[in-house]
Specification:
By secondary structure, the protein is α+β, with helices and mostly antiparallel strands. The protein has four helices and four strands, in the order E-H-E-E-H-H-E-H.
């Protein structure tokens, strides 16, 4: 049995991308992200790493902290104008569109979103509804 140690990092929004030459594009991606950080006036702790090669494509992963994405949504209201169900999906669509305008044409997709771990009921069923409450509102 292998002992695994999981990273002691906060949950991150993971975005997978594909390009032709990651070694050359890595500096351009980080420069673009630096521009986002400069515009938001905060450090985002964004990570960009290679995820391997296949069929002539270099795959990479971008990891964004959810707090940084919230700051970007405040600074760039166009993020919420994208057509998607979740904020994370809207952010990825906006990011791909803005990168394309800067001549950074990558195929981006949302890979993983951190969710809050919950167990059991969030509402106390004893205090949710009772017969007296139902009679009052009839």
């Amino acid at each position: 049995m292998v002992n695994r140690k999981f990273a002691d990092k906060p949950p991150m929004i993971a975005i997978q991308g594909a390009c032709i030459d990651f070694e050359k594009e890595h500096a351009r991606i980080m420069e673009f992200i630096g521009g986002l950080e400069w515009g938001a006036h905060t450090k985002g702790n964004v990570e960009c790493s290679s995820a391997g090669k296949a069929l002539g494509w270099d795959f990479f992963m971008l990891y964004f902290e959810p707090d940084f994405v919230e700051v970007l949504i405040d600074v760039y209201p166009d993020i919420n104008k994208q057509e998607a169900n979740t904020i994370e999906d809207r952010f990825v669509l906006w990011l791909a569109k803005i990168m394309k305008k800067k001549k950074l044409d990558y195929n981006l997709k949302l890979k993983d979103v951190p969710y809050e771990q919950t167990q059991g009921f969030r509402l106390n069923p004893d205090h949710y509804r009772n017969d007296e409450w139902m009679e009052r509102y009839r």
